[in-house]
Design brief:
This protein has 356 residues and is α+β, with helices and mostly antiparallel strands. Helices cover 23% and strands 25% of the residues.
Length: 356
């Protein structure tokens, strides 16, 4: 069954129009795959892997990319080389903190399996911690889990909520997880698309906002019990942005930085213990690994402004789609994290709607 999304509740955010799917896969060629691991024996596991393919030929036809660390208490492998070279040379995976090495190595395994001739691989894998709901120290994620997510990736609608790497995540003290959204610029603005995919595992309830509505204050702990007796903003968020606009690496880096704005609109501010790391790539320019000369296109400087707005709006709505799609989950040590009640969300937003 398809999970509900924010717009299914009659709530829209932002000023720009979404793409047809309102997902990162609105950017042509982008595919997403998941492996979700939910088991109670021999250990309680609520975890998984998310895989994003920027293109089918990404191992050999590299794409310009850039990243931004808003707060660095987290991990995204391969970013040192990404910053140095300016290109993304493989698919991206997102998982839990203790499975970063496994998911990262799976990208190398797949390249070897497909006889990719690159001399080495420095893949990108991001993480957020699911140890509140999952017995993370049993290291349940395997190479096979990661390879399955990579091999089953597809275009079209993207699953959200308790799936893939987002399975065991908590967001603003409600059940969080995986979410996606997109924005498509008007023809006058270039017609470009920006898509976002988030793994949301951060935030204090009292900071949660939807548009003008202070949702976290409206739906307090007396109404929906918190996951933890002493709530702390100890989580993280990974944001992957894709666009078909022709951007150079420094422009991709600038685009990645705008995810910070979308995060702030929802109520994230980058706490000390949060790993808020964002990656953006462009599918417009292809850099073949063996090429001696590459001709590229670059979007004009002022024309980037609408893209920045699109990135912020897509990030904001992707977080909300993760919250809306997520379902109440009981996990490790019997801990229970409640989903955000849709009826109470609607009521809270309605109370703060603009009255013309």
């Amino acid at each position: 069954m398809t999970k509900p999304r924010l717009r299914d509740l009659g709530i829209s955010l932002g000023q720009l129009a979404p793409g047809p799917l309102n997902a990162i896969t609105d950017v042509a060629g982008v595919k997403v795959g998941f492996t979700t691991v939910i088991q109670d024996t021999p250990h309680v596991v609520r975890s998984g892997v998310t895989a994003i393919w920027p293109s089918d030929s990404i191992y050999t036809d590299h794409l310009f990319a850039g990243y931004h660390s808003f707060n660095g208490n987290g991990e995204m492998t391969g970013t040192i080389w990404l910053q140095e070279q300016g290109t993304l040379a493989g698919p991206v995976t997102i998982t839990n903190t203790h499975a970063v090495g496994v998911a990262r190595d799976a990208i190398c395994h797949l390249a070897a399996e497909r006889f990719v001739e690159n001399a080495w691989h420095l893949p990108v894998t991001g993480e957020t911690w699911d140890g509140w709901l999952s017995d993370a120290e049993t290291f349940p994620i395997t190479t096979e889990h990661a390879l399955s997510a990579l091999k089953t990736a597809q275009g079209g609608p993207v699953a959200e909520g308790n799936v893939g790497g987002g399975t065991g995540m908590i967001c603003h003290e409600f059940k969080g997880g995986t979410g996606t959204a997109s924005r498509r610029l008007s023809a006058e603005q270039g017609g470009w698309t920006v898509g976002a995919l988030v793994q949301a595992n951060y935030g204090l309830r009292e900071m949660l906002r939807c548009g003008h509505a202070p949702v976290g204050l409206e739906i307090g702990s007396a109404v929906v019990p918190p996951a933890k007796e002493e709530p702390k903003d100890q989580g993280s968020i990974i944001v992957i942005l894709a666009t078909d606009a022709p951007l150079l690496p420094i422009q991709c880096q600038r685009l990645a930085r705008r995810a910070t704005t979308g995060l702030a609109w929802v109520g994230g501010f980058g706490s000390n213990s949060s790993g808020d790391i964002f990656l953006a790539f462009s599918t417009a320019n292809v850099v073949q690994a063996a090429a001696k000369m590459v001709e590229v296109r670059m979007l004009g400087l002022d024309q980037c402004t609408p893209l920045f707005q699109a990135a912020a709006e897509a990030t904001e709505e992707a977080i909300w789609n993760a919250l809306v799609a997520a379902e109440t989950m009981t996990g490790f040590k019997g801990r229970k994290v409640h989903a955000l009640p849709h009826d109470l969300l609607r009521q809270a937003v309605a109370r703060y709607q603009r009255r013309d």
